[in-house]
Amino acid sequence: WSLLEELTQGLQPFQCATEFLSGQEYATLSCLPQLAKELQRSVQQSLSFETTPGKAFFSQSF
Q1: Please, which of 27, 37, 45, 54 could form a disulfide with 49 given CB 3.0 to 4.6 Å?
Q2: Over the stretch 23-53, which tens digit does the pLDDT of each residue have?
Q3: Can you tell which superkingdom this protein's organism belongs to (predicted)?
Q4: For residue 31, with 0-12 CB atoms within 10 Å meaning exposed, 13-18 middle and 19 or more buried, which class applies?
Q5: Which structural domain range is residue 32 located in?
């Protein structure tokens, strides 16, 4: 269960980004460069997971 909790935590920024980019009431294309930087920063921070499977998943995926 700890692996699933870590994956959920690590993928949370992608869910937020997806929801933001899905907006139809505002322009989102101009936000892509900053959003990509923030996602990259978030992924790098999430590499500090505690479980070995969590670390392996994120290091191989990103």
Answers
A1: 54
A2: 888 788 888 899 999 988 887 776 666 777 7
A3: Eukaryota
A4: middle
A5: 2-61
